[in-house]
Amino acid sequence: MSSVPGLYGVTAATTAARRRELAIRAAIGADRATLVALVVRHSLVAAAIGVVAGLIAATAASSVLESVLFEVKPRDPWTFGAVGFGLLAVCAIATYVPARRAVSGSPAVTLNEPA
Questions:
Q1: What is d(CA 113, CA 16) in angstroms, rounded to the nearest whole number?
Q2: Does residue 2 carry a pLDDT above 70?
Q3: Is the pTM of this model over 0.85?
Q4: Is residue 99 within 8 Å of 15, Cβ to Cβ?
Q5: What's the CA gap between 8 and 96, in Å, rounded?
Q6: Whether pLDDT at 37 is above 90
Q7: How many domains does the chain have?
């Protein structure tokens, strides 16, 4: 899973970039838990689309890579499922932590910070 640090970094940075948007939503009355759920849901939808596309590509490429796979069937559903679930879990954590941090402060302070 060499893509995990990259996925975490990109997802966390994208979520942190939405701090001003989340502060505006909080300032007009949105609940903090709802804001975190909104950000996590948006991130997981994008990640799920990527995982499905990756699984389709992996299935297509597995016959080509069959000669380098040891003790794993080319289209092993447990392996594909574990990798997909793992990537979605990393994405959820990488979104949840910065989203909690973004909504934890005062909206006024966040909006007064330089962009």
A1: 13
A2: no
A3: no
A4: yes
A5: 11
A6: yes
A7: 1
